[in-house]
Specification:
The longest helix is centred in the N-terminal third of the chain and has 38 residues, at about 10-45. The relative contact order is 0.15. About 50% of the residues lie in helices and about 20% in strands. Helix 3 packs across helix 12 (about 360-365), helix 13 (about 375-390) packs antiparallel against helix 14 and helix 14 packs across helix 16. The chain folds into 3 domains: about 5-155 and about 335-450, Isopropylmalate Dehydrogenase (3-Layer(aba) Sandwich); about 165-185 and about 230-330, 3-Layer(aba) Sandwich (Isopropylmalate Dehydrogenase); about 190-225, no CATH class. It is an alpha/beta fold and about 450 residues long. It is globular. The protein has helices spanning about 5, 10-45, 65-80, 95-100, 100-115, 125-130, 140-150, 230-250, 265-290, 295-305, 315-330, 360-365, 375-390, 395-415, 420-425, 435-450, and strands at about 55-60, 85-90, 115-120, 155-160, 175-180, 190-195, 200-205, 210-215, 225, 255, 290-295, 310-315, 335-340, 350, 415, 430. The strands form 4 sheets. A 10-stranded mixed sheet has the order 2-1-3-14-13-4-5-12-10-11, sandwiched between helices. The chain has a two-stranded antiparallel ribbon with strand order 6-9. It is built from 16 helices and 16 strands. It binds NADP nicotinamide-adenine-dinucleotide phosphate and magnesium ion.
Length: about 450
């Protein structure tokens, strides 16, 4: 799809034309490097056959700057090496609007069918987007829709590179957060209560009988109350997704709640995890040489800070929300986080943890040079290709994914990086490059691995 379809309204078309005109200059200056890249790629193609894929990946395209990066990654780094097979779904907001969001549902169903998807960041519409894209409706977050269909848990882990030191000096290996994405305070009911009121929890059973329990007698003061819930089925899915992911990564998994205080609610999480582990995973964990470890949330926080990393930390919804931001920041940046949604029946959807980087996109549209970090999107592709390779038994594809990640890290560790990392890196000979230059530098190193 070209940019004209992405935007609507005359002024946006004009903006598009202006930007493409001024972009000509930068494209022209890149011709030389493209030319040598093309020559190199041709030479490489003569030497080796492109890596073959057995089963297609589900490809979910997205919006704004990440959509631009998406195409660059495919053109520069993937298609010259891999005979890429994908089933393509355009989740860009224009196409979601055209299909009344059907494309999002279709892409999630295709993910269930094929088992592995890679997703570009997408716009979740708000009031400003309604007029910008002339939307029929304020479509829901595609991530929310996909998550609900796949019944998944989101795993996020930082990508470590030399020169960007975690704020916690003991952290040597990544800490992966597994966040339960259903219920608790995110699906709550709250009320402001007047002095003199009495608040009770009341449950009507299927036989019509009632169970009541006093929350508080507000005799002396106004106050607030909140009702929250979760489901055994959702907690069980969460537990299985965590245990499967730990086996997949061959890493220990920690889980923590506040079961000493919340003796029914949080305790239920602890019990479900424990039952499922004992029945279904204990022997698999023993065989893999990994551990499941439960502790109180405050103890977990203290242990995490003292640890050297290298494990998965499963968190209830709110804990995961807060702790994943803490982990991302303490390790460096959201543009250096991998993110994968794993369903209990082993379906994987890889994505970047950040958004569509709107501010950079508007610069790009104006023809200005951008320096947007593509690492998280690159790792979404490498993660998906590796998983496809594992499931299909195609080791060349797994090796390619490995090489792509190595070339990316090597580029940054040799001092070539985008603006966001340039601000963080302690390397002495660091150099800030544009979005496209960075990918061309990664390609140089990747090409050397296949030379
Ligand atoms: P964002 O796209 O993550 O960007 C926020 C800021 O973080 C950017 O302006 C930029 O800072 C920095 N940043 C994020 N990713 C970067 C990267 N790859 N390279 C360099 N800098 C990066 O969040 P947003 O601006 O709040 O949201 C934009 C759109 O993304 C929204 O429409 C939202 O709905 C959508 N969104 C999608 C997803 C998803 O699909 N997974 C997730 C979150 C948000 P500077 O401007 O200071 O350079
Ligand atoms: Mg948060």
């Amino acid at each position: 799809m070209n940019q004209c379809e992405v935007v609507s309204g005359q002024w946006l078309v004009i903006r598009f034309l202006t930007s493409h005109f001024s972009l000509l200059t930068s494209h022209f200056s890149l011709l030389t490097s493209h030319f040598s890249l093309k020559e190199k790629t041709e030479r490489m193609k003569e030497k080796m056959q492109k890596i073959q894929m057995k089963t297609p990946l589900v490809e979910m395209d997205g919006d704004e700057m990440t959509r631009i990066i998406w195409k660059m990654i495919k053109d520069i780094l993937i298609c010259p090496y891999v005979d890429l097979k994908t089933e393509y779904y355009d989740l860009g907001l224009v196409h979601r609007n055209e299909t009344n969001d059907k494309v999002t549902f279709d892409s999630a169903e295709a993910t269930k069918k094929y088992g592995v998807a890679v997703k570009c960041a997408t716009i979740t519409p708000n009031a400003a987007r309604m007029s910008e894209y002339d939307l029929k409706e304020m479509w829901k977050s595609p991530n929310g829709t996909i998550r609900a269909i796949l019944d998944g848990t989101v795993f996020r882990a930082p990508i470590l590179v030399k020169g960007i030191t975690p704020y916690i000096p003991t952290w040597k290996k990544p800490i992966c957060i597994a966040r339960h994405a259903y219920g608790d305070v995110y699906k709550n009911t709250e009320m402001v209560v007047q002095k003199g009121a009495k608040a009770e929890l009341c449950v009507t059973n299927p036989d019509g009988s009632e169970q009541r329990s006093l929350i508080h007698d507000f005799a002396g003061s106004d106050g607030i109350i909140q009702g929250i819930h979760n489901l055994d089925s959702s907690i069980s899915s969460f537990a299985r997704a965590c245990f499967n992911y730990a086996l997949d990564q061959k890493q220990d998994i920690w889980f923590a709640t506040k079961d000493t205080i919340s003796k029914k609610y949080d305790h239920r999480f602890k019990d479900i995890f424990n039952e499922i582990f004992e029945k279904e995973y204990k022997s698999k964990f023993e065989a893999a040489g990994i551990e499941y470890f439960y502790t109180l949330i405050d103890d977990a926080v203290a242990r995490v800070i003292r640890s050297e990393g290298g494990y998965i930390w499963a968190c209830k919804n709110y804990d995961g929300d807060v702790m994943s931001d803490m982990i991302a920041t303490a390790f460096g940046s959201l543009a250096m986080m991998t993110s994968v949604l794993v369903s209990p029946d082993g379906v994987y959807e890889y994505e970047a943890a950040h958004g569509t980087v709107q501010r950079h996109y508007y610069k790009h549209l104006k023809g200005e040079e951008t320096s947007t970090n593509s690492v998280a999107t690159l790792f979404a592709w490498s993660g998906a290709l590796r998983k496809r390779g594992e499931l299909d038994g195609t080791p060349d594809l797994c090796q390619y994914a490995e090489n792509l990640e190595k070339a990316t890290i090597q580029t940054i560790e040799e001092g070539i990086m985008t603006g966001d990392l340039y601000l963080l890196s302690s390397l002495e000979n660091k150099k800030k490059v544009s979005t496209q230059q960075f990918l061309l530098e990664v390609e140089k190193r990747l090409a050397a691995m296949y030379a």
